[in-house]
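Same chain as my last thread, 268 residues:
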Amino acid sequence: MPDAQSLDASVVAYDRELVPWLFEQWAEPIVDRIAPEPSSHVVDLACGSGLIVRHLVGRLGASGRVHGVDADEAMLTYAASTVDDGRVSWHESDATRLPFSTSSVDRVSCHQGLQFFPDRRAALAETRRVLAPGGRLAVATWGSLEANPWPAALAQAATRQLGDETGAGMAVVCDLGDPVELEGLLADAGFEEVIVDVQAGTVTHPDVKVAVSGQLAALPSGSGIGQLEREQRTELVELMCALLADHTDATGRLRVPSTSNLASGINP
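reply #2:
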């Protein structure tokens, strides 16, 4: 277990400031979709701060295993600090070169990661390689920017203050927002019985300024926003809050629509 001093501040902010209100509600649906057996060996691809891993361990028996995989060492270090369970292992790896034998795992989950992969097709081909025949993949991606005002406000605010390139980088989170495109991507990779459900909900936070500040704190220090001076960051918070005014009540409470595409497929 890593000590607290080794943890990256932006990753801590991501898990503590964003995950509880923005990501948590989607965790059980994706675990339900892969439907692990008690003895399943599961890979959580792009595991981030460990949200899905933490939900998976409660579904497994003594012989079950969860492998959290991420290319970000800082994320893995933090994730390992949140789970103390001998059934869980962590792997720093590119999604196109997974450290598992062919047909060696039963389930693969990928929660809000596929849209960030430079080569999605190669990552899905590698996923099929490690999945046993009949194994199941479940993928969640945010819906379109139009259906997700939170990332839309971040992208728009970043564009206004820092330019098109930074704004486009913030918008990538919704880059697989089209459910038809997502379905085609899995089918073209060779998965069968592909199903994509568009799930809509509402996420809430008691203070929009706290929520926005937490979002900015969670961005990596190497990003354009992560390098902002304090005054510039304050201006960005105010701009993003203004863009979210239609979803904020008189007390500052945020209630914002959130849409996710939940896809699954079977490895033949």
